[in-house]
Amino acid sequence: MNIQRVVTANFALNNAWVVVFQDLNYVSHSKPMTPAETLMHTTVRLECLLDGNRTSTGTGFFFSFKVDDKTHIPLIVTNKHVINQSKVGTFVLTKMNDQGEPILGTTERIVLDNFESLWIKHPEESVDLAVFPIAPLYHQADAKGIKFFAPPIGEDLLATPEKVADLSGLENITMIGYPNGIWDEKNNMPIVRRGITATNPKHDYNGLPIFVIDCACFPGSSGSPVLIFDQGGYLDAKGNLNLGGGRVILLGVLFAGPQHVAEGEIQTIEVPLAQVPISLSKIPNNLGFVVKAQKIADFRKMLIPNG
Fold first, then answer.
1. For labelling, which of 20, 65, 95, 227 has a CA lying 20 to 30 Å from the CA of 199?
2. What pTM, to 2 d.p., does this model score?
3. Beta bridge partners of residue 61, listed in sequence order
4. Is residue 292 within 8 Å of 252, Cβ to Cβ?
5. What is the pLDDT, as a whole number, of residue 198?
């Protein structure tokens, strides 16, 4: 793997988040790939070096805001706590051929100094979201004749109030990420989990813009996109069966989950990052807390003030 190290001095954000693409070559429309296969390329494994040379892993995913028909702002979305206090961040991007297809096993390893400072954090303290404007990296790679296969989840897939109103309240969900840092390193591919909504996404759980899922959530899963991904048909809120059609909806981003210790005490904690020795056994309840996707839309005003 090649290593590209970018120091903050050469990667100051300034107004970098308004750097947009004039073409969409970074978005693949490769016909041989199924929607599911493309979806599995939307995430990225984040490895952070913390103080004391501790390392942690988390999940990010590619996302884009549309400026107009020809320009987009590409981002990586994750949780604040994933990149909190990170001195150096590392992630791996898959290269793309001239036909817009991923070249599996051919990657570029990106290493960034002062990693936490490169992220834009959600202004609300209680909203555990942060975004990384990745356009400068794409431009640097393009200047070297390199293109990456990093299909973003577009804002058109966000769970709008209209889409949420059409949900049944009990939905199958798909979560993509890197539990315990596990991944297909050779092919740079994530792990996919399935589950259901444990609370109704139409409501704010305990008055917060979150909902709960019933899904195995482990260290490294923080930042995973939680989606409705139906193929071949689905039931709407009125019980109508929509046959032959599929749907993809980004419901939100995993950020935490309840756990209980061996003594039986139940605690709600951020999905942990670092694998460190502890004296108490913390056992996941197979529940996860998810920030609603509507909070991702808040970044549009920050990135495109007049958009």
1. 65
2. 0.85
3. 43, 77
4. yes
5. 96
Ordered structural domains, the chain, with CATH: 2-155 (2.40.10.10), 156-295 (2.40.10)
- For the chain, 307 residues long, the average pLDDT of each consecutive 10-residue run is 35 42 40 86 96 90 89 94 95 94 95 95 96 92 92 94 92 94 95 96 95 88 95 78 83 85 54 42 77 96 81
Give the pLDDT score at 214.
Answer: 93
Chain position carrying tokens 């390199």: 146
Please tell me the predicted confidence (pLDDT) of residue 278: 39
